Amino acid sequence: MTAPHFVLTLSCPDTVGIVHAVSGVLVEQHCNIVDSAQFGDPGTNRFFMRVTFAAPAGTDRAAMERAFAATAKRFAMALRVDERGAKTRTLILVSRFGHCLNDLLFRAGSGALAIDVAGVASNHTDFAELAAGHRIPFHHLPVTAASKAEQEARLLALVDSLGVELVVLARYMQVLSNDLCRKLAGRAINIHHSFLPSFKGAKPYHQAYERGVKLIGATAHYVTPDLDEGPIIEQEAIRVDHAMDPDELVAVGRDVECVVLARAVKLHVERRVLLNGSRTVVFG
Q1: pTM for the structure as a whole
Q2: 67 near 29, Cβ under 8 Å?
Q3: pLDDT category, 196, cuts 50, 70, 90?
Q4: Which structural domain range is residue 242 located in?
Q5: Which partner from 14, 22, 144, 195 sits 20 to 30 angstroms from 137, CA to CA?
Q6: Catalytic residue among 14, 228, 247, 255
Q7: Residue 205 confidence (pLDDT)
Q8: Beta-sheet pairing, 88-94 with 166-169
Q9: Is 141 exposed, middle or buried (0-12, 13-18, 19+ CB in 10 A)?
Q10: Tell me, what CATH number does 66's domain have?
C-alpha cells in the first residue's frame, strides 16, 4: 500500500517547545516529515505551522488527529489534519459576470484546482447553461430586499445539504448579511478589484480611466461583516497606460480577478492559509 500523506496545520500562543512537541508526535507515529514551515508573530504572540508528512500505510486522518490531541491541549492549539490533495467540496456563487466562474470550473475540471464543485448558485439564471455544460448542478436563488433573509436561509441550507466546506463568491454581487458572514467565517472567499475604497459603485474601471490610473489589481479575501475588508489571501497588480480605453481596462481587470481568485482558492484548499486576527499567514 502507498504511504498516505497528510497536511497538519496549527496555530497557538507562541512559546518554547512547539516544534519539538509536534516532531515528537510524528516520530512516535512513525511518520516522515516531507515539508515544514512555521512563523511566530511577535505582534500577536501567535505561532503558526504547516507540516506535510507521510504516515504508515493504512493510517487515517482521524487517527492522526487523535494522536495530536494531548499536544494540542497542552499548547492550546487550533489544530487540524487533512489528507494531502483531497478535494474540497465547494459552492460557487455568481451573479452576471461569469469570467471567474468559467475560470474556476475549467481549473477544477482539468485537475489544476483540488475542488469538488458541488454546485453553482446565483441570484440570476445567466450561467445555468455554463454550469450544465460542466455537469454541475445549478441553483437559482433570486433575491430582493424583502426576501434577503429567506434567500440567505436557502443558501445556508444548500451549504449544509451539499456538505460544502468552501463558498467562493465569484463576482457574486450581493452583500452577505452579518449573520451569514459569521456562519461562513473562514470558509468563504470573495474577489474584487483593488480600486477600493477609491472607486466605489458603478463602473469602477471607467472611474479609474478618468483618473488616469496606472495599476489594475484584484484582491481575494475571506468574507467578514466588514464589507470587502476581510483578511487578505492574495493580490496582484498589472500596469496599464494612457493608451488603453475603459473597455481594455475592464478586460485586464477581469483577467487579474480570475488569476487572483484561483490562486486564493488553491492556497486555501492546500491548507496554506491560517488566520491571524484581521490578517493571514500564507505559507508558500
Answers
A1: 0.95
A2: yes
A3: low
A4: 88-282
A5: 144
A6: 228
A7: 87
A8: parallel
A9: middle
A10: 3.30.70.260
